[in-house]
Write a structure and sequence with these properties.
single chain, mainly alpha, 2 domains, 5 helices, disordered N terminus, RPC3, transcription, single-stranded DNA binding, DNA-directed RNA polymerase III subunit RPC3, nucleus
Amino acid sequence: MEYEYLLAWIDDRTEARCRICDREWKETVPVGRTNDFQPARTFYLYHVDLPRTVRGLVEYTCKLVRNLVLRQRHGRSDNKAVLDKDAAVQPIVENIRSSDLDEASKLAQIAEVEEMYLPGPDRAQLNRFRKAQAALLAAQDQSIRVLLIFKLFLASGQT
């Protein structure tokens, strides 16, 4: 059992190494101890070009941010009807909150207005949309921070 796990781990490592080579982030240089370059008598030197790797990550991160922005737009267009209903409810709710009624009647009126304009399924859809938008905004913010760090690294000129 442990031997199979070890083999699977080696296969995963080999697969990751191949993916790194496919993206050209790593260069391999065979150094033969003899003239025939037999695998048993050959050393491989690995070199990772850090600036080139970071430039690849900058490109990948830019694509990620673009996709996050497009996903936000798509989510807004998909939920436009619910967002319009919510936009119609908000001024009414604000008027109720600013009125001179006691808190219990304010809460009752707000619940009544929200139920009238946004029935249960629409409210659930609006809550799902808001949670998804919050997650997308958090991911976009984090991606932009990472992109800034990558750009600062490239601007520093350090290798």
